[in-house]
Design a protein that fits this description.
Layout lengths: L1 H13 L7 H6 L14 H11 L31 E4 L5 E4 L11 E8 L2 E6 L2 E6 L6 E5 L1 E2 L6 E5 L3 E5 L11 E6 L5 E5 L4 E4 L3 H4 L9 E4 L4 E6 L2 E6 L3 E2 L7 E7 L2 E6 L2 E6 L4 E7 L1 E2 L7 E5 L4 E5 L11 E2 L7 E5 L5 E5 L4 E7 L1 E2 L8 E7 L3 E7 L5 E7 L1 E2 L7 E11 L7 E11 L4 E3 L11 E10 L2 E8 L8 E6 L13 E5 L4 E6 L2 E6 L4 E12 L5 E5 L4 E4 L5 E7 L1 E2 L6 E5 L5 E5 L4 E7 L1 E5 L4 E5 L5 E4 L5 E3 L1 H14 L1
Antiparallel strand pairs: 1-2, 3-4, 4-5, 5-6, 7-8, 8-9, 10-11, 11-12, 13-14, 14-15, 15-16, 17-18, 18-19, 19-20, 21-22, 22-23, 24-25, 25-26, 26-27, 28-29, 29-30, 30-31, 32-33, 33-34, 34-35, 36-37, 37-38, 39-40, 40-41, 41-42, 42-43, 43-44, 44-45, 46-47, 47-48, 48-49, 50-51, 51-52, 52-53
Helix pairs in contact: 1-3
Pfam family, one: WG_beta_rep
Keywords: Signal
Protein name: WG repeat protein
Length: 649
């Protein structure tokens, strides 16, 4: 006993030192005694020293196991693993044994983060606790175990007990079949009678509950409970007791701390953590919290918003939409008309429109309204409620990023093939955000009122792509038009089946009725639609074939440079192309369609290795041209053939 007291006293003394020898401490043990002293933590030393009083206790060596571990408290750290900075379950900064070092060990089924200085662990199927030094300070032996709660933890072997931070168990707690740790030394327990109540950390001594007995208790948050008795629910706050009458059919969490749903007569409302009623139970549904912190109450005849962050409550409306990414929501008033409210719950536009859509480009909002003598008309307003695009259309489309949109209006149309029967039809047209017409509606037979437009955000050569199609052909037979983005001038003389931009040379290939042509960026035809095929050739020229199966070339500007007169035409190489007008009529042209070799030869070959041309006449005489098209072999005879050909031409 004397040796034990000596060891404890020495430990208290060494607690004031910066470091000490583990071997010195161990040498104080009796060979016949178990090394219990090596399991003592800082609090154990404090408790024992108060009994033996060998020396005064240093102030910094105290009994709070939640304090950061250090060299003194961790004298028994046999693992040799350094301590690390982290946060415990309560968010406090701690220096402690790194629990990740144990999580790969298959013996552990559960390792919880530290709470109040202890980590709850499950090893080999039973529960125990580690201290901040990583010591299994309370051996794994329990069927169930709760986290530490103001110096004690609830554990179950056969009965429930309290265990303190020395591992000392209380007597068994009477009549308790299940338990859950809460806060402030209060725990929730279920009794053998199936009733539930609260107990404090002295229950093993007093055997007195800390609250009344209830039929059921639901944990709403760390300090607030929902309690039930005689089929009715109320709110209980730990440390304060019951703070609302037992008057609801149910109370449950809302998904937001300190805000709870209350149910009465199949209706739902909201209360705060103090039991104050924010919404009476008048709603069928309360939605989840949105991105702006609002929940919505919905009933058959009304809807309302409350901000769960500051408890601001909106006016009551018939309907309220979700807020968009600009923080605007559509509201329907008692007059059944629509307006706008913002996320500050300020009415931006009073309910006055038959329909109201989402705000689009240029901060304009599509709306409709009954116009006297004209019926329901559509247009756009701004956030001040002023008409920007007048309410005079049968429908309006989405404004694109450049400021174009499609509207449908009632216009005079030729409705028969003779053009004599004049009537009205609803036709699409394209306008800009100032209301100016960009593309006129189709009013003539047979397409009067039957051509729809779609404005896209696609841009080619600074031109907006507009799609045009008949009502029944939305997904096929679509034609394309181009509108210049700078001044909204239509540059396509007609809708085309296909438009392809040539970025390098700033013109367009266009196709109409299966034939290709070219268009410059002002809308002027460079070549009418007349070619069956267009192929990208070498040296920036485009090989084309007309509807008579003759070949020619377009230059890099999209203009016809080599008239389609040839039965066959090869790619340009060295600025020359082999061409043919028929059998034994092969020649060589340059990019200006000049005849470098007249069409009087059987064959011309391009030699890839030397970049020369080999020319063969009908008698197999051989002539050679260099890369510049100059004759290098049998030149006198070639010049005679050239002269004869030029004379006959």
């Amino acid at each position: 006993m004397k040796r034990l007291c000596l060891a404890i006293g020495l430990l208290a003394y060494l607690g004031s030192a910066d470091a000490f020898s583990f071997s010195q401490l161990a040498s104080l043990e009796s060979k016949n005694e178990p090394a219990k002293i090596l399991k003592f933590n800082q609090q154990q030393v404090s408790n024992q020293s108060s009994e033996t009083k060998p020396v005064s206790q240093p102030a910094k060596l105290n009994a709070d196991p939640t304090k950061t571990a250090n060299a003194v408290t961790c004298f028994n750290n046999k693992s040799g693993i350094g301590l690390s900075q982290s946060k415990d379950l309560d968010g406090r900064d701690i220096l402690a044994f790194p629990l990740d070092k144990l999580r790969n060990n298959v013996r552990y089924g559960f390792i919880e983060n530290y709470k109040q200085g202890f980590s709850r662990i499950k090893k080999d199927g039973v529960w125990g606790y580690l201290n901040l030094c990583g010591d299994e300070i309370i051996a794994c032996q329990y069927e169930k175990a709760e986290p530490f709660n103001d110096g004690k933890a609830l554990v179950k072997r056969q009965d429930w007990h309290f265990v303190d931070n020395l591992g000392i168990e209380s007597d068994g707690l009477q009549n308790i079949v299940d338990a859950k740790s809460l806060s402030k030394g209060i725990s929730l327990v279920k009794l053998k009678s199936n009733q539930m109540t609260l107990i404090d950390n002295n229950f093993d001594k007093t055997n007195k509950p800390a609250s009344s007995l209830y039929d059921e208790i639901i944990v709403l948050n760390n300090s607030t409970l929902a309690v039930k008795s005689n089929a009715k629910w109320g709110v209980f706050k730990i440390g304060e007791g019951a703070i609302s009458e037992l008057s609801y059919d149910l109370i449950e969490p809302s998904g937001k701390d300190n805000l709870f749903k209350i149910y009465l007569n199949k209706k739902v409302g909201l209360i705060d953590a103090n039991g104050e009623v924010l919404w009476k139970p008048d709603f069928n549904v309360i939605t989840d919290v949105d991105n702006y912190g609002f929940v919505k109450g919905i009933s058959d005849t009304k809807q309302q918003l409350v901000n769960v962050n500051d408890f601001r409550v909106s006016k009551i409306y018939k309907k309220i939409s979700d807020f968009d990414n600009r923080g605007l929501g559509i509201i329907q008033g008692e007059n059944n008309l629509f307006g706008l409210v913002d996320k500050d719950l300020k009415t931006v536009i009073e309910p006055q429109f038959n329909t109201i859509g989402a705000m689009g480009e240029f901060d304009l909002i599509p709306v409709s309204k009954e116009v006297t003598g004209k019926g329901l008309k559509f247009g756009f307003i701004n956030l001040k409620g002023l008409e920007v695009i007048p309410l005079e259309y049968e429908s309006v489309g989405k404004i694109n990023k450049k400021g174009l949109l499609v509207v449908k209006e009632t216009v005079s149309c030729n409705l028969d093939e003779k053009g004599k029967k004049i009537g009205t039809c609803k036709a699409d047209k394209v306008i800009d955000v100032n209301g100016s017409t960009v593309i006129l509606p189709i009013t003539k037979y047979p397409d009067a009122g039957k051509i729809n437009y779609t404005v896209t955000d696609s841009m080619v050569h600074n031109c907006i792509v507009v799609r045009a199609y008949r009502n029944e052909d939305k997904n096929k037979n679509v034609k394309f038009m181009l509108v210049r983005g700078d001044d909204f001038k239509v540059i396509t003389p007609e809708p085309f089946d296909f438009v392809q931009a040539v970025s390098k040379h700033q013109f367009f290939f266009v196709r109409q009725n299966g034939l290709w042509g070219t268009l410059d960026t002002t809308g002027k035809y460079l070549a009418k639609c007349q070619f069956k095929t267009v192929l990208m050739a070498s040296e920036d020229y485009y090989l084309v074939q007309n509807d008579n199966d003759k070949y020619g070339y377009l230059d890099q500007r999209g203009k016809i440079q080599v008239t389609p007169d040839y039965a066959s035409l090869e790619y340009f190489k060295n600025g020359f192309a082999i061409a043919s007008k028929g059998e034994n009529q092969v020649g060589l042209i340059n990019k200006f369609n000049a005849k470098i070799i007249p069409f009087a030869f059987r064959e011309i070959k391009f030699k890839e290795n030397t970049r020369e041309y080999e020319v063969l006449d009908r008698d197999n005489n051989r002539y050679m041209l260099n890369q510049q098209g100059e004759c290098t072999q049998n030149c006198k005879q070639l010049e005679a053939i050239r002269s004869k050909a030029n004379g006959s031409e």
